[in-house]
Design a protein that fits this description.
71 residues, mainly alpha
């Protein structure tokens, strides 16, 4: 936040009554305490299927280095 925006916000808060300041602070705190949701993967087979992408391919360190240094 730029200093001018902060100064403007600060001056607006200064004009609030004590009750309004408490209500504003309460809204801010409640916003910060909003519970978050986590995504749980139900199908692990999608992840395991990715291992098949490298089947029958040489992915050794030496093979990767040779391909990289050819450029």
């Amino acid at each position: 936040m730029s200093e001018s925006a902060f100064a403007q916000l600060s001056s607006q808060v200064d004009m609030l009554s004590y009750t309004e300041r408490v209500m504003l602070l309460d809204k801010i705190v409640n916003t910060l305490r909003t519970p978050f949701t986590t995504v749980v993967r139900k199908n692990e087979t999608d992840f395991e299927a990715a291992f098949g992408l490298w089947k029958d391919r040489d992915i050794s360190v030496e093979a990767i280095r040779q391909k990289a240094w050819r450029r």
